[in-house]
Amino acid sequence: MFAGRKLLQQTIALYTKFTKIRMVLSSSSGFRVAILQLTVTADKSTNVANAVKRVQQAKLNGCTLAILPECFNSPYNTALFREYSEVIPGGDTCEALSQAAKSNEMYIVGGSIPEICDDKVYNTCTVWDPNGTLIAKHRKVHLFDINIPGGVCFKESDALAAGNTLNTFQLGKFKIGLGICYDIRFPEMATIYRKQGCDMLIYPSAFNMTTGPLHWSLLVRCRAVDNQAFVAVASPARVTDSNYVAWGHSMIVDPWGKILEEASEKDMDLYVNLDFGDRENMRQQIPTENQRRTDLYDTIDLKNKV
Q: Of the residues 181, 198, 222, 265, which is catalytic?
């Protein structure tokens, strides 16, 4: 009897705590986000089940949005992408994410998964709203083809086709731009998102043990400061005996370039309260958007004529 009463008291306290968090965020124009740094195995169903479980935990922690890593349902291996690929939105992974978003009444940025379409395989991010509806899809635009002697050699184009669109979605009044991993190295893409009015940029990513220590936090902070927006990156956890070893260190950075939270290399989750009033303050104090010399230079979206 005592144990049951204690559990009830703990549950009430937890509910009260996160009700207060939601009230604070509502009054300060923001929301609570979860970045889920998952361990990816060779078992697709286990990976998906783990993602769903962690989304549920994010909901219990008062989050409105959960972000999964790049290739969270499959090993990051060009030889395996086609084997693990599925149709979007009809595949098993998409059905699980749709149900998780609906049952937990939250937004999910579904990291990325190998997508099969017209016999081509893409590295694709899906976004689901609290009704379980697919509201955005981003295919990785820039394929990760690099060769660093003594470091890493990887060629996504051996197995993947590139996407040809930039993609955003709305979370309430906030507009969010999507990229995947290598996309973050191309500042023009982020600039277009800023011109489209994005408040936040999200890049599910899997940097490696060569580029991760050198460029990971540098690139995230640059994209945040350049575009005066929040930037979130979600990596798989590090598995040292895998074909491709991820750097980990998922993080979220504010518009001032400050790292709000950063994971280690281990399997773990980050829960962060975002206040978009901070972003507005920076944009007013350092008004770069209105100071760009478009009479001398510009960044344009050729496809949509932005």
A: 181
